[in-house]
Write a structure and sequence with these properties.
The complex is a heterodimer of chains A (88) and B (354). In chain A, a hairpin with a 2-residue loop joins strand 3 and strand 4. Helix content of chain A is 18%, strand content 26%. In chain A, strands 2-1-5-3-4 form a five-stranded mixed beta sheet. Chain A is built from two helices and five strands; from the N terminus they run E-H-E-H-E-E-E. In chain B, the strands form seven sheets. Chain B has a four-stranded antiparallel beta sheet, with no helix packed on it. Chain B has a four-stranded antiparallel beta sheet with strand order 4-5-6-7, with no helix packed on it. In chain B, strands 8-9-10-11 form a four-stranded antiparallel beta sheet. In chain B, strand 16 and strand 17 form a beta hairpin. Helix content of chain B is 3%, strand content 42%. Chain B has one domain: Methylamine Dehydrogenase, Chain H (7 Propeller), CATH 2.130.10.10. By secondary structure, chain B is an all-beta fold. The chains are: A alpha+beta (88), B mainly beta (354).
Chain lengths: 88, 354
Amino acid sequence: MALVCVHGPLRRLAGNRAELDIGGATVAELLRGLEHEHPSTAGWILDERGAIRRHINVFVNGERGAERTAVGASDRVEILPAITGGAT
Amino acid sequence: MTELLVGTKKGLFALEGEPGAEFEVRSRAFAGEPIDFAMRDPGSGRVIATSTSPFYGPKIWFAEDPAGEWTQADGVALPEGGDYALERIWVIVPGDGGALYAGGDPGVLFESRDGGATWELNRALWRHRVDEDWQPGGGGLCLHSIVPWPGEPDRLAIAVSAAGVWLTDDHGETWRRGNRGIRPRYLPDDAPEDTFQLCVHRMERAARDPERMFIQFHGGVYRSDDAGQSWSEIGDGLPSDFGFPLALDPGDPDSAYVIPLTGDFDRVTPGGQVRVYETRDGGLTWTPRGDGLPPHHAYLTVLRRAFDRAGEGSSLQLYFGSTCGDVFGSGDAGESWFTAATRLPPVFSVTVSA
């Protein structure tokens, strides 16, 4: 299982936890697994198309990942709000 | 006491007061979050709000008190695995018979039968949207106007920018277009007459004569006397027939209020004067109403859902907010105006309960 780290409002939705052990071979599978274990997170990270929302960044062992990025059992996956705004 | 729910770029503000004086800011919820729309459901008394987080996407929330705990509603999503994602919820409207309707981008209609806790997509309209390749306006493909028919819960009209007017008589099982007579100036003269690339900005129905409806269009103000089947231009006499919001006096089916902007090339109040224009004869004539509104060097933009009313007749209350963060009100059907709030974040929506 990978170690998934969540921040901001996602912690509350994930049962008030900052770190969770989630199984999955790719980032997308892992995020679906997070939704399965904590249904309140559904729609917050992935949209209906299965795409990571535009202003969410997922890092796998410190490197920017995408839906199809492979995830290993001992990997650390961070889900972070991206830098955004500047015009608002 | 009158309550205003003001959706802004940086949170939801609940204001309370009496017409004629500045309102008190009772609470700010969703600090920092864009609140597209908020309303108090007359059926349940709940407050329902829609947010579009730049990070986490669009959501609907409900609470008993705007200063209290908010709960996320369920079912506010498109079918999984398709080509579309929900972008924004623009409006929530109470229907007849206890229903609530929500409209949003990309051209979607949801219905709730439990006071806004759970929502279900109207799949028949969604099928039209997918099969007919609706095109968005500048603000997205927004379903922004939902107009029930008093006493007939199966009859509903909706308007989409930029996919025109749609009508149903069977509670959303089937839909048909209602666009005859609308002439978009942004298409060539030889565009097909049955085009539905129509940028309706706001639509309302007269409460006491449901066949009578009004539209503020992207260039043009229209009236329908046949429940939205066909439309006639009524914008002569306005300084500009471009604008976004529209409000009606429920006590007078000949009434309408619009807030003209200079044009689509300069979306501010014309000449720096803030004026609401009122008709009481179905659009034959228009009267400017500006007593108490900024008379000069006021370049305001009022968005489509930032204008609402309560009551009727001579005690009709009208309120509108601008993207400058001001909220103005009238307690006498537009005869005179006062400033209800200033220096809020840019106002996206205003709803009134009195």
